[in-house]
Amino acid sequence: MASTSFIREINADQFQTEVLDAELAIVDFYSDECPPCEVLATKFEPLSELYGPKVKFIKIFRQKNRELATALGVTGSPTLLFYKNGKPVGEKLAGGILRSRIIKNLDSLLPAEEVKAIHGKIQQKDTEADVLIIGGGPAGLTAGIYLAQAHLKTIIVDTALPGGYVATTHQVSNFPGFIAPLNGYMLSHQMTEQAKANGVEFRAAVELDEVDIETKSVRVDGFETIQAKKMILATGSKPKELGVPGEREYQGHGISYCATCDAKYYNDKDVVVIGGGNSAVEESLFIAKFARSVTIIHRSSHLRANKEAIAQVHAEPKIRLLLDHEVTEIKKYAAYDMGVVIRNNQGDVTEEVKTHGVFIFIGFIPNTEHFCECLRTDKWGYIEADNQMRTNVPGVYSAGDVNAKLYRQITTAVSDGTIAAISITKEIS
Prior knowledge:
alpha/beta; Glutaredoxin; 3 domains
């Protein structure tokens, strides 16, 4: 139940009078045991105090009002809908909703002079912490758990929901302690809940307005500045995307960027690998240990891997090459799972390759765009840290996939986070 006087919780039978008959309304369809809903609540309630006198703030428990939710096209929680004189307006917001997106849609409901007055009431906030962690993946969450258990005030800031890239992984079967494969989202969720239980504070799905690693401070969502004694950079890395239709829609649902994580699920099945460098070739050889067939699709006329790896690919009967072909779309079907639409660069002929799964290996990019050039990195942009996870900037540590390292796995990220946290704990104490 909402805690402020400007938020009213209703059921479907009240929707007409409370929303459609109202001049202005914002409706939050939420669910229980819903981490994104918890994140939204930290924004919804403060905004209700600002906009509440002008706009009705409504919450509807989606699980008990499914018929209404379905009729309104609400398929997930949380989902925000905006109404003006009984008509839906603006954007339908869902998932990890940014505060600025909510404000943008609320502002569009009101006259400019009222918007100006409301914005004038937004109070700036200063928060102090012992340790500020940027990034809520396995490295950041592990560091948070250790630091909180050491009674250090720890805040994790993430531009997305906590969990990191592993949250998009279909199944994880090589993380110690779990006999049966675990859904990546659930592993992330359990790590996050463990961090919360130990006292870690979160600023999730926020916008990073400013990051100053030299002063170990950040400004988020346009109003809160967090200052810390120590900082851990645990922003991870992200795979380079092809940028074709279907790629983002099916990530974690037929499209993978990690052979070590997912090859085992394609035993005796047909797989497509996109890419032609060392990673694509070496991962194809690994996938071939499980799959019935592996088709490597590469836009160039030759592979760019080392000669030994290329020789092994040519010697592997399970692997075939489709060179000089560009991927233009990725599809998903019920029967055969996936389809990769490709265009022959020589003859401009389009065809579709049917497959059970798609692996994309065209490189990774470290998430360092918010950090200054004073941070020492390798030639690929990954942060260089010592064996205690210290960077070249005093008081600033880095951990996980954002680091320059040989292997990037959940277990190696957890290890980095542990080392950084213990190093900081000893230094502060």
